[in-house]
């Protein structure tokens, strides 16, 4: 058996009880799991401070001194233990609210201790609440180490399994593991990037002897992690390009006819560039696998339609799959305008399509009479069969799983249909490389001609009457307005404008104006009814929750007021704002907040007011929230990353990707002796069930 597959209960200092806890709380089962349980930060205990040197700028202090005396203050929930601690330069307090009786027994009068914690000044005197306290010994009196801080749970802390205990276990394991740790990168890559060895990287990441060593250990582990992440994605991409044939779409008479006689507006430079990239894929004889990114309203629909015309020109059918009925309806209406101009048969298939209509669509798809179909998950049902499906377009791809996409592929058993995946959620470049590194990526980064950028402003709740005055002016011009609230009903815990309260307030402020209301708890047919009233301009104000985030295109809606904007993430604010600005009129987005907002919220609001560029917004969002929280990215490729941080490690990712690409281009099957470490590592990866990718 592989050393790293040994169960952790056999490690000295662990045993069955602790092992059961670590299994349950942290999913740590083997030596390999434990070594990969990396610290998320390290505390600098390399030197000591003195009490007289304490100031607010120090996040934590590390002090040697003597415990003079202690006493209990207060009663009940306010009961606390306060100790006086001093060194040669001054005196401070140490305070415990929990474990009072334990510390009373544990503390030694006039004992010499090392204290570590965050200093706070109160009444002109410094104190540390719940400090870390160690008896001063000849071994620790010099300081000189970095304390790793590991991800833990409350239950582990209660059982006295803290970062120090975990660190000691890992040190024992590292000493045992040393002869078993194999190099996982070729020598020439290690030399090229001046990387430390795998052994040193593991040791120094868990138990760094200096800041420089810690930096080098992190750099090595990040590079390796991102290298294997990219290697897997690029290998899949190459496989696609060599193993998966696709139809050749070389005829383009219908496309030319559309361009010359029917296209209702000029394409932007970005749309033309993207179409050129797509057409290049369609001529190769390999299956296209392309991601099309573009903000809401950037003109992805026309690009999708022209791509469908290439399929049509070559006797192939196309389908477009969207995650919701509202979105499918929007795409259907958008495409039907163009299809009618060209005399093309187009249909729509969703969960609510009537049985009779459904049967007709099934027959027309099978005979080839229906050339384009737009729908939801209903398209992947087994009963839906095509005469010759040549192109699948998937909108908001992160809402669909791999199995669902594979079902679409299977609709043509002779040759794989081409795949175009679209998203209106701009994805930062580093994230796109990691999530969609196996796809070719195109971006529409230009607004259609005649569109004015949306003006975004921040207003406080105190300015509400002025905001409502502005809304009245826009309504007088014949415009429509969205008012978005974060919650449906009042919550005792959150002092927020809830939807029903908001609806009443808007009704009072605009008594003559017909209103619609839309929220997630409504039935589908009621949602649709309300949305259609707004689309037809029968209602002038739509009071809604975020269900309108991906909603219907209403060019006449020119104002969006977002209440409690501090409750929304950046990408959500950007998606919501994209509901206005669909027509030629100047549109506005008003972000309402209370005066009390955090620094992060202020940065989000300032970013929204400064730019309409979805890619710039997504970069700021990545910095603020990290990759795991971004919309739809909690899928394979992101959560695997244990050390790398895509918000900070873009430069390492770029080098790792380039290295993986070069190796795969030169030696795809890893036959050259210098690539043996990669080959062995990948074989071990495939064999092992545990995620033991970085050592064995």
TrEMBL record:
List residues of the Helicase C-terminal domain.
463-628
Question: Is DNA damage tagged as a keyword?
Answer: yes
Offer one Pfam family short name for this entry. DEAD
Known Gene3D superfamilies for this protein?
A: Nucleic acid-binding proteins, P-loop containing nucleotide triphosphate hydrolases
Q: Which InterPro entries match?
A: ATP-dep_DNA_helicase_RecG, DEAD/DEAH_box_helicase_dom, Helicase_ATP-bd, Helicase_C-like, NA-bd_OB-fold, P-loop_NTPase, RecG/Mfd, RecG_dom3_C
What reaction does this catalyse?
Answer: Couples ATP hydrolysis with the unwinding of duplex DNA by translocating in the 3'-5' direction; ATP + H2O = ADP + phosphate + H(+)
Start and end residues of each Helicase ATP-binding domain? 281-444
| Enzyme class of the recorded protein, top EC level | isomerase
Name one molecular function that GO assigns to this entry. ATP binding
> Its GO biological process terms?
DNA recombination; DNA repair
Q: Which UniProt keywords apply?
A: ATP-binding, DNA damage, DNA recombination, DNA repair, DNA-binding, Helicase, Hydrolase, Isomerase, Nucleotide-binding
Q: Does the keyword Metal-binding belong to this entry?
A: no
Q: What does the similarity note say? A: Belongs to the helicase family. RecG subfamily.
This molecule's function is given as: Plays a critical role in recombination and DNA repair. Helps process Holliday junction intermediates to mature products by catalyzing branch migration. Has replication fork regression activity, unwinds stalled or blocked replication forks to make a HJ that can be resolved. Has a DNA unwinding activity characteristic of a DNA helicase with 3'-5' polarity.
Q: What is this protein called?
A: ATP-dependent DNA helicase RecG
Provide the species name: Dyadobacter jejuensis
Q: Mind giving the lineage of the organism this protein is from?
A: Bacteria, Pseudomonadati, Bacteroidota, Cytophagia, Cytophagales
């Amino acid at each position: 058996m592989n050393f790293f597959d040994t169960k952790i209960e056999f490690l000295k200092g662990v045993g069955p009880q602790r092992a059961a806890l670590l299994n349950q709380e942290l999913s740590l089962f083997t030596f390999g799991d434990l070594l990969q349980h990396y610290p998320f930060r390290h505390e600098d205990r390399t030197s000591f401070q003195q009490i007289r040197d304490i100031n607010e700028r120090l996040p934590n202090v590390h002090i040697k001194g003597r415990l003079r005396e202690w006493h209990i203050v207060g009663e009940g929930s306010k009961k606390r233990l306060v100790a006086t601690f001093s060194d040669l330069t001054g005196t401070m307090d140490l305070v415990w609210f929990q474990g009072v009786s334990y510390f009373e027994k544990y503390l030694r009068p006039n004992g010499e201790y090392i204290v570590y914690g965050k200093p706070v000044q109160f009444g002109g005197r410094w104190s540390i609440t719940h400090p870390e306290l160690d008896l001063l010994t000849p071994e620790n009196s010099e300081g000189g180490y970095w304390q790793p801080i590991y991800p833990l749970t409350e239950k582990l802390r209660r059982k006295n399994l803290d970062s120090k205990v975990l660190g000691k276990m890992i040190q024992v394991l590292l000493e045992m593991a040393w002869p078993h740790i194999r190099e996982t990168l070729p020598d020439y890559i290690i030399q090229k990037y001046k990387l430390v060895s795998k052994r040193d990287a593991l040791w120094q990441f868990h138990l760094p002897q200096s800041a420089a060593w810690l930096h080098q250990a992190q750099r090595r582990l990040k590079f390796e992690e991102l290298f294997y992440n990219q290697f897997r994605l690029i290998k899949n991409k190459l496989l696609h390009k060599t193993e998966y044939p696709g139809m050749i779409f070389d005829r383009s008479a219908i496309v030319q006819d559309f361009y010359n006689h029917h296209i209702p507006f000029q394409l932007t430079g970005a749309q033309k560039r993207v179409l050129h990239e797509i057409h290049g894929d369609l001529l190769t004889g390999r299956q296209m696998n392309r991601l099309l990114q573009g903000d809401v309203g950037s003109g992805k629909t026309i690009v999708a339609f022209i791509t469908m015309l290439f399929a049509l020109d070559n006797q192939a059918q196309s389908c477009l799959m969207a995650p919701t009925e509202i979105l499918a309806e929007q795409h259907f209406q958008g495409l039907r305008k163009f299809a009618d101009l060209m005399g093309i048969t187009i249909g729509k298939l969703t969960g609510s399509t009537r049985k009779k209509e459904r049967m007709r669509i099934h027959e027309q798809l099978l005979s080839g009479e229906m050339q384009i179909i737009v729908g939801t998950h209903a398209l992947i049902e087994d009963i839906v069969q095509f005469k010759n499906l040549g192109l699948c377009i998937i909108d908001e791809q992160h809402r669909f799983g791999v199995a669902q996409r594979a079902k679409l592929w299977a609709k043509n058993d002779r040759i794989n249909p081409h795949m175009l995946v679209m998203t209106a959620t701009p994805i930062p470049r580093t994230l796109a490389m990691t999530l969609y590194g196996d796809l070719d990526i195109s971006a529409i980064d230009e607004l259609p001609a005649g569109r004015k950028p949306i003006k975004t402003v921040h207003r406080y709740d105190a300015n509400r009457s002025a905001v409502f005055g502005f809304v009245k002016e826009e309504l007088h011009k014949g415009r429509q307005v969205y008012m978005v609230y974060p919650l449906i009903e009042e919550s005792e815990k959150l002092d927020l404008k809830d939807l029903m309260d908001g609806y009443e307030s808007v009704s009072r402020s605009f008594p003559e104006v017909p209103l619609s209301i839309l929220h997630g708890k409504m039935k589908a047919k009621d949602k649709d009814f309300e949305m259609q009233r707004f689309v037809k301009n029968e209602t002038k104000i739509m009071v809604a929750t975020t269900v309108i985030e991906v909603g219907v295109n209403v060019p006449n809606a020119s104002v969006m007021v977002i209440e409690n904007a501090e409750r929304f993430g950046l990408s959500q604010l950007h998606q919501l704002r994209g509901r206005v600005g669909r027509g030629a009129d100047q549109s506005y987005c008003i972000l309402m907040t209370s005066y009390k907002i955090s620094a992060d919220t202020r940065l989000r609001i300032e970013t929204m007011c400064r730019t309409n560029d979805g890619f710039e917004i997504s970069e700021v969002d990545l910095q603020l929230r990290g990759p795991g929280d971004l919309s739809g990215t909690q899928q394979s490729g992101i959560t695997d990353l244990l050390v790398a941080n895509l918000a900070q490690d873009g430069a390492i990712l770029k080098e790792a990707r380039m290295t993986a690409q070069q190796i795969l281009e030169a030696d795809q099957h890893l036959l050259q002796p210098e690539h043996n470490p990669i080959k062995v590592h990948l074989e071990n990866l495939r064999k092992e069930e545990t995620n033991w990718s970085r050592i064995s």
